Amino acid sequence: MNKILDNYLGQSPTPLTLRQLIFYERHCNTERLLKSANYVRKELPIRIAHRIREFQKLPYILGTNPHIQCVYDLYWQAFEKIRNIPEINNREENEKFCKVLMESLDVHQVVIPELAKGIYECEQTYQSVVAMNKLDRFMDATLRSRISRRVITEHHLVLSGKKMSIFNNCTSYDTLTKCIQIVQEHAIKMGLVNQRKDLPNIILDGRDTEFTYVSDHIEYILYQLLSNAMRHTIENRKQSINVTFCSNETDVLFRISDQGGGMSKETFANVWSYGSHENMNQIEQLEAKLDEQERNLTIRLGIGLPMSKVYAEYWGGDINLMTMEGYGTDAYLKIPRLGTQNENLHNNDSPLDGAIM
């Protein structure tokens, strides 16, 4: 099997831009639909193959963790199933292909929880085998690849009329106000305050900007940043959160400033890490989307910020935190607005070179 895998590892993934995907969606016909189908049919095994090889580089004692092994097996199954699909020449064959893709999306909803559980157990038990920063880089790369596969898969399902578009015309103000309303409702439901009038005042200031983006991604990021600011502001008994939004020629920019007490050096050093998140054991499936937050209100999973960073960087954006212990934290988010940057795949960046399973 590894000989077959090597054939795919010799091929580099072909990254796309947001603009290319949107163009195909807006100008779809049968020819483009079939071209998309065969691109996804060829591209998915290549992207999966590179992830499988990274799993094989894990030290044996980590690779045999049941949660890590579960994801590894899922990837092999998907690799085998999709690479054996013949060329797609008509809409009937595309219908069958779409069925395979939809089944794969459903089955792989366990990937994020299983990975997080595995990383947590490895961090607790075998920290001396692989440093946590390497496990974090492994997790980042795996989730980045997962996003890339889901984007091209869901995009093709949209072209085939199986899903609603994953791309939306957004404005910075509307996206913020939607996330703010949900964060406020959740703060009340969680009992952080007794009633709406007790919530901190969120002060919006800036210039609105229109842009097209994957709304699931940006909503997830802003929810996480606002939710953290809300919780710490309430705990620190402060009255307001300041949110600034603007743009330049290439990017949409957000800043969320709170007076929630800031973070200690130790907390700040691990803010992007996937370790020490034992609450993930309470979750069986996770897509990392905004509409899942309601179901998991009472469970602090602890992967919101690292997952947000992967989302932000995927299309060439960025997310940064500045904290003053004893005062508060500023979160800065940059989202590209032109859609001309390739997917951030980092295929040549192997965090586990030298650690063969």
Overview of this structure, please?
Pfam families: BCDHK_Adom3, HATPase_c. Keywords: ATP-binding, Kinase, Mitochondrion, Nucleotide-binding, Transferase. This protein is α+β, with helices and mostly antiparallel strands. The chain is built from 12 helices and 7 strands. A 5-stranded mixed β-sheet has the order 2-4-5-7-6, with helices on one face. A two-stranded antiparallel sheet has the order 1-3. Helix 5 packs antiparallel against helix 7 (111-125), helix 7 packs antiparallel against helix 8 (132-159) and helix 9 (172-189) crosses helix 10 (215-235). The mean pLDDT is 89.
Listing every helix as H and every strand as E from the N terminus to the C terminus, the arrangement reads HHHHHHHHEHEEHEEHHEE
Overall pLDDT metric? 89
Strand order across the biggest sheet?
2-4-5-7-6
Largest sheet: 5 strands, mixed
> How much of the sequence is in beta strands?
5-15%
Number of domains: 2
In terms of per-residue confidence, which ranges show pLDDT below 50 for 5 or more consecutive residues? Answer: none
CATH fold type of the largest domain = Heat Shock Protein 90
The helix tally amounts to: 12
- What CATH architecture of the largest domain do you see? 2-Layer Sandwich
CATH C-level label of the largest domain: Alpha Beta
Rg from alpha-carbon coordinates = 21 Å
Beta-strand segment tally: 7
Structural class: alpha+beta
Q: Label the overall shape.
A: globular
